[in-house]
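Human: For the file, kindly provide a plain-text protein record giving the amino acid sequence and the backbone structure tokens, at your earliest convenience.
Assistant:
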Amino acid sequence: MKLTIAPDSTLREALSESRGWYGRISHWVWLVWLVWLLGPVFFVRDGTFPHWEFATAASVPVFLVLYVAAQICSRRYLMWYALAVAGLCFAVTPYNPFAQTYIIYACALASAWNNPRKSAALVLVVVAAYSVQWLALGYPWESMLNAWILCPIIAGLIITERIQRHHRAELRLSQDEVRRLAARAERERIGRDLHDLLGHTLSLVALKSELAGRLIERDPVAARHEIDEVARVARDALAQVRSAVSGIRAAALVSELASARLLLETAGVQMEYWTDADKLPSNAETCLALVLREAVTNIQRHARANRVEVTVIAGNERVVMRIRDDGRGGVNARGNGLTGMRERIAACGGALVIESPRGRGTAIEVTMPLPDAPRKRDEQQPAAGVVVPLVRPAGSRA
């Protein structure tokens, strides 16, 4: 029989969202704590629990079936699996007090239930009920402190992680909505601009053409003048359309910095940026924005970084952008993304330098000349392997 993993199960969530191998197998690593069921071997010497081996051995397969089913089922059913594991704990505890281990698993399953408040309440009810049984069996109350300490801590960690995951999902949805609204507003703006630009121009071309058609037999000179006017208006319209398209294609560096920060913060990476490049030529700004986008995408996917710093400094002759992360480094300088960066920067007359020692993060420096600036020969190409240290003015934060 083939096991089906529910789309909203804890296992599916771990497989789809975890960035590391441990996160994908952590649910199964936790099973190592079943070793505490063997506690009577090490801590009970007087034969107080003579048949604990049989009860414990019979309970373990039942627990494993419940545990696996709980990992692959829909979250709305987790309460029942948590209660089933708790019931197993109640059944085995009279024979083996170290079956208290099961109550911790039950609380962990209850914490992953749909509603965080109901999950917390269920954990308290389960632990309280188990405490009543524990005391009724005459076991020392001090041994029950383990459950009262571990269960709330584990439940709190799981519930907190679920709340943070929910907030991250809401943040991603809000970012998608902002992008959608921005794209819609941009389409509307483009439509208005083209309507205002081409509507008037094409109306004028139509009127001039009709007038030239009426004058071509009566007054050829005037008709030729009108045709020349049509050509002039068409050339002006073509220049305006090209200018509008250039503006549409241009990517604003400031907006790209803000977008990059949102993307990295969604992935749990802190980003700080600083720029003094208020006004740059559109081609230089677009190139830097696209390079920044590619670099941030690579950091989010591969770097495993905790912190990223970006600075953009514009001088009289050139603009320099530095991107540094504290990730695992070891970037392949011949990768497709970096090759695309180099080609794009080279097309604008700039240069790219990358420092990426393994285990010490990656630093990228982009140097681009500004138009109409006298460039010195020794400034056209930075020395290979040299990266200027990242320096931000004191107190500057994004």
Remarks:
- The CA atoms of residues 112 and 161 lie 10 Å apart.
- The chain has a mean pLDDT of 79.
- The longest strand covers residues 307-314.
- The two ends are 55 Å apart (CA to CA).
